[in-house]
C-alpha cells in the first residue's frame, strides 16, 4: 500500500520527470514541515493547547468548534463552549474531522493525468506547471469559443471565491452548484415566489405547538443547532406530524405518521388547505391582511376533497382530517418546515408553493412557534470579484425555459449544450469541491460530457470519483487548514434572550504537503488569464478582514473573543413587515405560463415488479464526502436497502440477504448490499443511504463499499419552473445473490 513505500521508491515515483503512477501511490512520507499521521495514544503528550476559531465543514451546517493541539498536531475537535448555535456539541462527523485532516489518501500535490479520463495515471508536477497549464488550456478555449465555452461546478465554502471569479469576472454563465440544483434550490424559489422571502431553516420549533415535517429526516441529518431546536419543541409539548413513506427517525417520535404514497405530497397539502378553507378553520385575519389571490386559490383547489386526496395518496381520509384539525387547533403556533433536500419527483416547485401557502392560511409566518425570518447581524461586507467586460446570457434565458431558476444555470441545460454544441459549445470544465458522479443523475451522460471537453480542471481535498476525470488535479486546503468562511446567525429559545453571533473560520492546523487555499489558487489563475488587476484580496485573511470591517470586527478581534462575537439581537424577533405578502395566486407564474396556484402534477408509478428508489442520509455521513473517513466508516460502512416485511416475504428475502439492484433501464449496481427487512416502509418503495459505493480506487477505505444509489438514477425528470433534477423517479428490482 502507499504508506509502505520506501523513501527511495517514493522519490522515484514522485519525481516530476518520472513515469506516471496511480494517485494512491503518491503517499505521505516524513518531510520537513509536513503534518504527519497517525496519532499517538491519548495521554502520551503533555501541554495540550486549545485553538479557537474553527468552523466545521464536515457538513454544510458549519458548527463552531475548537481544536486540541499536542506537539503541533491536532488530536481532538470539540464544540466551542462560547457558541450559542451548536453550543458545546459536535456530531460524529464533526469529531471525525481529525481523521479527514490526516487521511493518507488526501490529495497532496498538483497532478497531471497522463492516462485517460476515467482511467487516470497521475504524474506529480509543480504548482507553476499546473497553474500555467490550467490558464493556457482555459484561455485557448475562451479565445476560440468565447467565455460561454467554460462551465463550472462549485460546492462548499472553498468554491465561493473562485465561483465569483469565473461567473462575474471571466463572465461564464454556466455555473451549477449541487446545493441548489440537486438540493434546496427548488424550495428557495417556491418560497420566494410565494412570500418574497428566501427560506433557510428559520422555523421556531422550540416554541411551536405543532411541528409539521414533510420529508424532513431530523435525527438523521444531524444539523446540531437545528436538531436542538426540534428536540426542545418536543420537550416543551409540541405535537409532531411526519409525512414520509418511511418510518424515519422523525416518524419514530411523531404523534401522527402519514405513510404517503411517494410523489403525491402536493395532493395531500391541497386537500388540507381545501378542508380548512371550506370549514373556516384558517386564519381569516392574517389572510385578509397579508394574502393576495386567496379567493382564486380557494376556488382552484375545491376539487381536492379529503376523499380524493386519500385515494391519490393511499392514506385514510380520516387521517388527513386529523392532521388538518390539529394544525387548525394550534394556529398560528405551527412550525411548518420548508424542508431542504427537496428535489424529489419533478413536481417539487408546486409542492414548495403548497407548503408556503398552507403556512399562510394558518397565519404561521412571523408568530411565536412558526416560520420566522431570522434577523442576522448586519454589516458584513460582501467583497466580490468585479464584473468583467464580457457577460453572456444564460442558457435558460437563451432557450426561454425554467424562468424561476435558483442561482446559476440548470445542470441539465449545461450537459445538453456540452453534448450537442447547441446553442453554443462548452469545452472547458472547472470542478471545485463537487463530486459530479455522486451529485448528478445519469452518470453516463456526465461522463460523456466530460469526455468531450478539451480540458477538465479539478480542485478537491480527496481523490473522489470525479477526480478520475480530471486533466489537472489540484490539492485544496481542508476547512481545518484555512480561512474561507464567515458565519452569522441568530438564536433564541423559551428561556433565553435573543442573541446574534458572528464567527469566522480560522485554521486549527497548518496545511500539509503542497496544498494551497482557494484564494491563492484562484488569484494565480486570474493573473495568468490577465485579470491580476481585478483581484479583490491577496490572501484569505485579507478577504475576511475586509468583510468583517463593515461590522467593526477583524480576525484578530474574533480570536481575542474566543472565536465568536456575540451581540444582542432585536428586542422582539417576531412580527412581519407591513409589506409582507403571501401570493396564493402568483401573477409572475401566470405571466410565464406556469400554474399560478399550487397544483398537483402526478408522477409515474412503478412498473410491475419494480419499486421506487428513495435515498437519504446516514446520520454518520455527509453523503459521499465522508466515505473515506476511517472513524465513520468503522461505524457505518455500507447502506442496506430497506424492504417492507410483507414485500420481502413475497420476494423470498430475509434480513441480511445479499442483493444487487437493477433499475427500469436495465442498469445494475456495480456492487451489492444487504437487505433490511422492516414494516417501516411502504411496499411500493425501497430506501437506502446515498453516497456509498465510491468508484475511485484511490479511496482505500470507501472504494466499492455499499451500493451507489446515484448510479441507478438514469431516468431523468426536471422541474419545469426551476430546472432542478428529480432524484426519486427511478425504480429498481432486487436480485438475490446466491
The number of helical elements comes to 23
CATH topology of the domain at 188-365 and 582-591: Dimethylsulfoxide Reductase, domain 2
Radius of gyration, CA atoms, in whole angstroms: 26 Å
Query: How many angstroms does the end-to-end distance come to?
Result: 32 Å
Mean pLDDT: 92
CATH architecture descriptor text of the domain at 188-365 and 582-591 = 3-Layer(aba) Sandwich
**Helix-residue proportion:** 25-40%
CATH class of the domain at 188-365 and 582-591: Alpha Beta
Secondary structure: number of strands: 25
Structural class: alpha/beta
Could you provide a short overview of the structure?
This protein is an alpha/beta fold. The chain is 29% helix and 17% strand.
Amino acid at each position: 500500500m502507499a504508506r509502505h513505500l520506501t523513501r527511495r521508491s517514493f522519490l522515484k515515483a514522485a519525481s516530476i520527470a518520472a513515469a506516471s503512477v496511480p494517485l494512491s501511490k503518491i503517499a505521505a512520507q516524513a518531510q520537513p514541515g509536513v503534518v504527519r499521521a497517525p496519532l499517538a495514544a491519548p495521554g502520551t503528550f503533555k501541554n495540550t493547547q486549545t485553538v479557537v476559531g474553527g468552523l466545521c465543514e464536515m457538513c454544510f451546517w458549519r458548527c463552531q468548534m475548537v481544536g486540541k493541539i499536542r506537539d503541533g498536531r491536532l488530536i481532538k475537535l470539540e464544540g466551542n463552549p462560547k457558541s450559542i448555535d451548536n453550543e458545546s456539541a459536535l456530531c460524529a462527523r464533526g469529531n471525525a474531522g481529525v481523521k479527514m485532516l490526516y487521511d493518507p489518501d488526501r490529495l497532496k500535490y498538483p497532478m497531471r493525468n497522463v492516462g485517460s479520463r476515467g482511467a487516470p495515471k497521475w504524474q506529480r508536477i509543480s504548482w507553476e506547471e499546473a497553474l500555467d497549464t490550467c490558464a493556457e488550456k482555459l484561455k485557448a478555449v475562451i479565445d476560440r469559443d468565447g467565455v460561454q465555452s467554460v462551465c463550472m461546478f462549485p460546492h462548499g465554502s472553498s468554491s465561493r471565491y473562485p465561483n465569483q471569479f469565473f461567473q462575474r469576472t471571466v463572465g461564464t454563465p454556466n455555473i451549477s452548484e449541487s446545493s441548489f440544483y440537486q438540493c434546496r434550490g427548488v424550495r428557495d424559489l417556491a418560497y420566494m415566489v410565494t412570500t418574497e422571502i428566501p427560506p433557510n431553516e428559520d422555523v421556531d420549533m422550540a416554541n411551536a405547538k405543532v411541528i409539521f415535517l414533510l420529508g424532513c429526516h431530523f435525527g438523521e441529518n444531524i444539523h446540531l443547532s437545528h436538531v436542538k431546536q426540534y428536540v426542545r419543541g418536543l420537550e416543551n409539548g409540541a405535537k409532531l406530524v411526519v409525512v414520509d413513506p418511511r418510518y424515519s427517525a422523525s416518524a419514530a417520535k411523531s404523534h401522527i405518521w402519514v405513510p404517503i404514497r411517494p410523489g403525491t405530497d402536493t395532493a395531500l397539502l391541497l386537500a388540507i388547505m381545501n378542508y380548512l378553507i371550506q370549514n373556516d378553520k384558517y386564519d381569516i385575519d392574517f389572510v385578509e391582511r397579508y394574502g393576495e389571490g386567496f379567493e382564486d386559490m380557494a376556488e382552484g383547489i375545491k376539487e381536492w376533497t379529503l376523499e380524493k386526496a386519500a385515494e391519490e395518496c393511499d392514506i385514510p381520509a380520516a387521517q388527513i382530517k386529523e392532521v388538518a384539525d390539529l394544525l387548525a387547533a394550534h394556529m398560528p403556533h405551527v412550525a411548518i418546515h420548508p424542508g431542504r433536500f427537496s428535489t424529489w419527483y419533478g413536481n417539487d416547485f408546486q409542492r414548495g408553493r403548497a407548503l408556503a401557502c398552507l403556512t399562510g392560511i394558518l397565519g404561521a409566518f412571523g408568530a411565536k412557534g412558526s416560520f420566522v425570518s431570522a434577523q442576522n447581524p448586519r454589516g458584513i461586507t460582501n467583497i466580490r470579484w468585479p464584473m468583467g467586460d464580457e457577460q453572456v446570457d444564460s442558457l435558460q434565458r437563451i432557450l426561454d425555459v425554467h424562468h424561476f431558476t435558483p442561482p446559476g444555470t440548470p445542470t441539465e441545460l449545461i450537459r445538453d449544450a456540452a453534448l450537442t454544441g447547441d446553442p453554443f459549445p462548452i469545452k472547458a470544465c472547472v470542478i471545485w469541491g463537487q463530486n459530479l458522479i455522486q451529485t448528478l443523475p445519469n452518470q453516463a451522460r456526465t461522463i460523456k460530457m466530460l469526455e468531450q471537453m478539451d480540458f477538465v480542471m479539478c480542485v478537491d481535498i480527496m481523490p473522489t470519483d470525479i477526480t478520475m476525470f480530471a486533466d489537472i488535479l489540484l490539492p485544496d486546503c481542508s476547512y481545518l487548514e484555512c480561512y474561507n468562511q464567515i458565519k452569522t446567525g441568530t438564536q433564541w429559545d423559551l428561556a433565553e434572550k435573543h442573541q446574534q453571533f458572528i464567527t469566522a473560520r480560522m485554521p486549527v492546523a497548518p496545511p500539509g504537503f503542497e496544498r494551497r487555499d482557494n484564494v491563492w489558487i484562484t488569484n494565480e489563475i486570474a493573473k495568468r488569464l490577465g485579470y491580476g488587476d481585478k483581484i479583490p484580496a491577496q490572501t484569505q485573511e485579507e478577504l475576511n478582514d475586509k468583510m468583517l470591517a463593515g461590522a467593526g470586527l477583524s480576525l484578530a478581534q474574533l480570536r481575542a473573543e474566543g472565536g465568536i462575537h456575540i451581540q444582542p439581537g432585536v428586542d422582539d424577533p417576531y412580527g412581519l413587515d407591513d409589506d409582507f405578502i403571501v401570493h396564493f395566486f402568483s401573477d409572475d407564474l401566470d405571466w410565464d405560463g406556469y400554474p399560478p396556484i399550487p397544483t398537483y402534477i402526478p408522477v409515474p408509478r412503478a412498473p410491475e415488479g419494480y419499486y421506487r428508489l428513495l435515498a437519504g442520509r446516514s446520520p454518520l455521513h455527509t453523503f459521499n464526502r465522508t466515505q473515506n473517513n476511517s472513524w465513520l466508516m468503522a461505524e457505518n460502512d455500507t447502506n442496506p436497502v430497506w424492504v417492507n416485511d410483507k414485500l420481502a416475504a413475497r420476494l423470498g428475502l430475509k434480513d441480511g440477504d445479499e442483493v444487487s439492484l437493477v433499475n427500469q433501464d436495465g442498469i445494475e449496481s456495480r456492487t451489492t448490499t444487504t437487505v433490511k427487512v422492516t414494516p417501516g416502509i411502504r411496499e411500493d418503495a425501497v430506501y437506502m443511504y446515498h453516497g456509498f459505493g465510491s468508484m475511485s480506487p484511490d479511496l482505500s477505505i470507501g472504494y466499492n463499499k455499499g451500493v451507489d444509489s446515484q448510479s441507478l438514477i438514469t431516468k431523468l425528470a426536471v422541474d419545469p419552473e426551476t430546472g432542478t433534477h428529480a432524484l426519486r423517479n427511478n425504480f429498481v428490482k432486487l436480485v438475490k445473490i446466491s
